[in-house]
Amino acid sequence: MTTSEILTHLGEDREKYFNAIAPPIIQTSNFAFDSLDDFRRGFSDEWGTHLYSRGNNPTVQILRKKVAALEAAEDALVVGSGAGAMNLAILANVKAGDHVICMKNPYSWISKMMTNFLPKFGVEHTFVDATKIENIENAIRPNTTFLMLESPNSLTFEIQDLKACAALAKKHGITTCIDNSYCSPLYQQPIELGIDISCHTATKYLNGHSDVVAGVICGTKKMIRKIVELEYMTFGPTISPNDAAMIIRGMRTLELRLQRTSESALKIAEWLDTHPKVEKVLHPFLPSFSQHKLAKQQMKGCGGLFSVYFKADSKEKMETFVSKLERFLLAVSWGGHESLVLPMVTFYGIPGKEDTTHPWNLVRFYIGLEDAEWLREDIENALLEI
Ligand SMILES: *Cc1c(COP(=O)(O)O)cnc(C)c1O
User: Fold this and answer.
1) Helical segments of the chain, H only
2) pTM of the entire structure?
3) So what's the pLDDT on residue 232?
4) Distance between CA atoms of 255 and 7, rounded to whole angstroms?
5) Taking the C-alpha atoms of 138, 141, 142 and 143 in order, what is their torsion angle to the nearest 10 degrees?
6) 106-114 contacts: CB < 8 A, separation 24 or more?
7) Which H/E stretch holds residue 201?
8) Which numbered atom of ligand 1 lies nearest the CA of 107?
């Protein structure tokens, strides 16, 4: 099935709702049954029927089908945030006495799960530089049951060899899980490479309009059912049918948006790569990127993120550069229509927090859907200040 068919039609049983083109927002908490027998059948298979919207809501179900198909997964679960998705996938697959291996510097709230949450329940962890498969292999212990990956990560874009990770983990009976948000399901399909669970923040590319927070978990039917029946139904991180409909609407243009943002980002990154005030550009599809070959091998595209180390002699100069940018909004997140800048100099001198370990001349850019030349000019002008 083509991507466009999935985004435009899959999962939409239009004859069931007046042949409406747009999916109905089934804004209900619960569903009534015609007979006691039906009611009993509902309880025997809550995930396979419609009984209560913390479990299975028909609007959310349309979204689940689309995301699963994009990931080439048997099933998908949609939850209230990306952090929630990844942390549910971890919790569902570890128990007291287990050991988890996690790539170093994962998304911050995955880090917190490892360092502050899992220890409360007797689960150990090791962070490894997972750009080298030997480092993962050397960290495996007899009680290692879970490997958490994020490839590329969303600041410096280190990559893990997903096929090799999957093969190594299978040999040791370890469950593998990836945060696949950077690539979206369109540019990387980890499950096809042997990874067990692929998670996304739907807040970024999938919804794509900076107006919904949500997350998804993709895997086998068995894995998704396991997560649903215990962690999901217990913690209840459901999304509203209205948010699901907004994401379905956002996804109609996922292919187009990614194409636009990828092309613009690569163009601007290539220009910056040769700029005299730039020390280094980090973008996996630039030939100067240290893991360029692996990136080309396992990814179909890169999307709109890249980072830059600028040549600046002081923090103040970096601050001036950032304040001169007029066409990039100063904000976290990415994946929407708008271009964003996240300078590491922000994380120096925040009251009550330790300074970041990232250098202050590092800046992450997200290129949105605006005209690439208009954005490039803005960076060019601001660079006159440093
Ligand atoms: C934003 C983000 C998340 C978390 O997603 P939320 O929807 O904000 O919870 C996880 N991983 C990456 C790479 C992200 O950028």
Assistant:
1) 3-8, 36-44, 58-70, 82-91, 108-112, 133-139, 162-171, 184-187, 221-227, 233-235, 241-251, 254-273, 292-298, 315-324, 372-383
2) 0.97
3) 97
4) 9
5) -150
6) 106/148, 106/150, 106/153, 106/179, 107/82, 107/83, 107/150, 107/153, 107/154, 107/179, 107/181, 109/83, 110/83, 110/86, 110/148, 110/150, 110/179, 113/86, 113/87, 114/148
7) strand 197-201
8) 11
Token match 């649903």: residue?
Answer: 228
Ligand 1: atom nearest CA of 204 is: 1
* Integer angstrom CA distances of residue 243 from 8, 179, 201: 18, 21, 14
Which residues are near ligand 1 (CB < 6 Å)? Answer: 81-83, 107, 154, 179, 181, 201, 203-204, 213, 215
Q: How far is the CA of 83 from the centre of ligand 1 (A)?
A: 6
Report which protein residue has its CA nearest ligand 1's atom 11: 107
pLDDT, one tens digit per residue, over 60-118 is 999 999 999 999 999 999 999 999 999 999 999 999 999 999 999 999 999 999 999 99
Cβ distance 75 to 219 under 8 Å? yes
Q: What is the mean pLDDT of the chain?
A: 97
Tokens of 335: 């994946």
d(CA 207, CA 302): 17
- pLDDT for 302 equals 97
Mean pLDDT confidence for 2-31: 97
Pairing of strands 215-219, 278-282: unpaired
Cα 42 from Cα 198, distance rounded (Å): 29
